[in-house]
User: Fold these one by one.
Assistant:
Number 1:
Amino acid sequence: MRILSGIQPTGEKHLGNYFGAIRRWVNEQAEADCFYPIVDLHAITVAQEPTELRKSTLSLAALLIASGIDPERATLFVQSHVPEHARLAWVLECMTPYGDLRRMPQYREKSQTHAAFGVALLTYPVLQAADILLYQADAVPVGEDQRQHLELARDLAQRFNNRFGETFTVPRGTYPEVGAKVMDLQDPAMRMSTSSESDLGVVRILDPPEHIRKKIRSAVTDSGREVRRSPDKPGITTLIEILAAASGESAEQIQERYTGSGYGPFKADVADAIVELVTPIQRRYAELRNDQAELTRILARGATKAHAVAAQTLQRVHEAIGFVPP
Ligand code: AQP
């Protein structure tokens, strides 16, 4: 079983990234052959400050290891260290209908909120397909926001296989039962996101405990006092789901426990559960983040392993489409 999933070295990673992706990556690595790229080629689809990008690529590697990714088991690497990603993306772009990309929800959203953007904002789902198909991944653990991108990767794999013969494994997206879409604490109609408008709405894995408590205390709720999941209670629903994801309890158990207690004690417990979850990660991160030489070594080893697999796939692709070998 081969697994691939990537993460961008931008912003500080939040509970959505953790429940939707990172924690599942840690669980998968015991069972499967896992490839986890830090996708810096994706990060530059919007402008990045070079010093900051370099720094956040290494800090993200430290955060992933602190969260439990074991570089001896999983292949942790930087996407730009393996040139086959960009090379396969070009081949796939040549067979991707323009209309399919214009319909992608993230393109529609970001093209409206950014004053100027490059064409890569339109084409990056094809690069994402290349990331997955290069490693012949069977499964791709991601959050719900990636569902349409995964469909595109499947379509491209099937289209390529039909036209040129069996070349790619057709991947399937896998989504968690809880935490597939963690919502913003200030605007529970929106997904919790790095580029969210209000910092108060986003709980970051590296937030100090007092910030976490403040964010949970200030989370928007309705004026009632019933701890219950319901479409007319999106704020409370978000907090119940976060507590369920952090504690492993079901939403029903949580609702039962807080019957009649009001929002105060419930919110305090949500904050405690998050602090308990992130404290050991923060401690390990503080130990790792300054050892740049070790992080660089780990990423170089990962790139060598990733390159060996990626080069084989690209060679098969080039043969299939009729390129003359070098
Ligand atoms: N709110 C979320 N709930 C569940 N899963 C989420 N993911 C992101 N937000 C949520 C999942 O996290 C993984 C890595 O995402 P990423 O950092 O590479 O990029 P992203 O999805 O673009 O993250 P952001 O925070 O939302 O950044 P912006 O604001 O720049 O778009 C993916 O598996 C994703 O599904």
Number 2:
Amino acid sequence: MTKKEQNRESTVSLSKEQIIEKLTTTVIGRNLSLFDSVESTNLVAKEHIQRELVDGEVLLALEQTAGKGRLGREWTSSKGKALTMSIVLKPLVEKPYLLTQLTAAALAAALSPLADFGIKWPNDLLLNNKKVAGILTETVYSGSTLEAVIIGVGINVNQDASDFPDSILTKASSLKMELGSPLDPNAIAAAFLNSFEVMYQQYLQTKDPSLFLEICREKSLIIGKTVWIVNGKQKKKARVKDIGTDGELKIIDDMTGMEEALYGGEISIRGIDGYI
Ligand code: BTN
């Protein structure tokens, strides 16, 4: 048996029924589809948003052939070894850009029984300084009206080192690799969706993001550190001061000493000597 075949055998299969069985939600994931192979669950969600998809619907795939990350990057994962899903939200939520951080907080909270995960603002979940999950939030507008928000979440669950290109092994990993044994992806999916619903409902009702932003601050891997702020081809050194009340990253430019606020967008953060 090859190493790849052994790896495949050690993983528990993703099953729609097993996820639904573990859900405690009323809206999120109550409509759930599991595809064998799609280009990207976010793309499928966008294509079907107008007619078929309802609020809280979740689309999962065993495999994505053109998974997307932030900033136009690729998101790759070996078939059946990662969780790749999109949550469709239809109500008119205030400040949809905050949902990436809500999702990061919900993920960190859901996975906290396994380990202490860190958040790299705004959308990365790290364990032992390696990225194990990422979030891609996309909005769908009809004219100037927000029709839906699609929260794409990729969680590296049961990949082995051989499943990652060598070039990213220094900065990416899986829960299995970091924790030492395979995990049940159904339990992880359900725990995340349960945690997401609690935070999302609370945000819809109160319009107050402070609860999830506080989790993002507590779990932040960059507050208090000097990092590279990368914006396209430009990069500058800055010290990260805080995450503000609107989810913005408050930084102090190393050169000018001036305080600035960064709002997600095209920005990415890099550690001075490594990934973070
Ligand atoms: C990132 O870290 O840059 C974001 C990664 C988001 C990946 C997920 S996987 C499910 C959904 N479908 C996609 O094509 N991307 C998101």
